[in-house]
Amino acid sequence: MKIRLKRIDNDYHFELTNERGHVTHIDSKAEVGGHDLAPSPMEYVLMGVAGCSAIDIISILKKQRQEITTYRAEVDGTRVEAGGAKPFKTIAVTVYLEGDIALEKAKRAAELSFEKYCSVSKTLEPTATVVYKVLVNDQEI
Question: What is the pTM of this model?
Answer without folding.
Answer: 0.92
